Amino acid sequence: MATVEAIEREITQLTQKELIEFRRWFVAFDADVWDAQIEADAASGKLDKLAEEALEEYTAGKAREI
Q: 29 near 37, Cβ under 8 Å?
C-alpha cells in the first residue's frame, strides 16, 4: 500500500496542467485495461451465457433497440 500512498502524494503535488494531462492519460489507460479484460472474458467464454440470454430476450421481443 505504500506505493499507492506515494502515488497519491505525488498526484497532490501536480500543477493544474500536469493534473489535466494525468487525467487524460489515466482515462485512456483505464479504458485500455477495461477493454483487455472484456476481450479476455469474451475469449474465455465468460460472457457466452449473458450473450445467449440477451439474444433470447431480443428474439422473444422482450428487448428494444437503444
A: no
